[in-house]
Amino acid sequence: MISSLSNPKVKYLIQLQTKARFRKDNQQFIVEGIKMFMELPRKVHVKTYVSESFYANCLKEVMDELVKRPYECMSDKLFKAVSDTQTPQGIMTVAQMPEYDFEALLAADRPVVLILEALQDPGNLGTIIRTAEGAGITGVILSNTSVDMYNPKVIRSTMGSIFRVPFIYTEHIEETVKQLKSRQMKLFAAHLEGKRYYFEESYTSACGLMIGNEANGLSDALTHLADAKIRLPMSGQVDSLNAAVAASILMYEVKRQRIVY
Fold this sequence. Notes:
- The protein is α/β, with parallel strands linked by helices.
- It has helices at 8-18, 20-26, 34-39, 52-56, 60-66, 76-82, 122-135, 152-158, 173-182, 220-223, 243-260, and strands at residues 28-32, 45-51, 71-74, 91-96, 112-116, 139-143, 167-170, 186-190, 196-197, 207-211, 228-231.
- The chain folds into 2 domains: 8-96, CATH 3.30.1330.30; 102-260, SPOUT methyltransferase, trefoil knot domain (Alpha/beta knot, 3-Layer(aba) Sandwich).
- The protein is elongated.
- 36% of the residues are buried.
């Protein structure tokens, strides 16, 4: 059992929890909780760590899965020190980052790609990824100025969808978007200056939805690449919605139209 904060394995876990550059350099990240452990594909599983009390009271179905994979116990006090949550469940797993490429995002017959520019809030990104799975989005493209997908807060907010929604980061998002246009994908920019409401457009063919930074929206460079600017109807003194809420509304409009038509 691991019980010392100076243990090299513990130091490694803490750096994975706290440093995006360290995660990227090692191509590994941490997921916490029973649900995330049970949904983690075995091909990306590296090692699981459980607290002493968790191991002593582990549910049979979790134990049956745990013993099939490399795992190690640590003291309750140490586990809490390493965990990123206030009330840890007692199980965390080191996972290998999945590998996706541009083509993986376009694998469907009528792909729907979500394009996120400079998104900063971890909770927003996690919620968007979870909603993207529910709405049937085929892939997500993020500018490299966006928050790290493997930030622990993002991971928790995805509720496991991070394992099932292909995504890529790109250094030159305008060039990547131009590649989508070359594939005859129609691009829609969520924008306050949109002339049409989002539900007035058709999303039944291959398309992309562009969402910008929480404070500043989409850059002019990316907006100019859109085939259409769309907006949400607003009442009262509200002029915009949370990025995750806006993205969710747009994604489910795509899904609604494709169910109907």
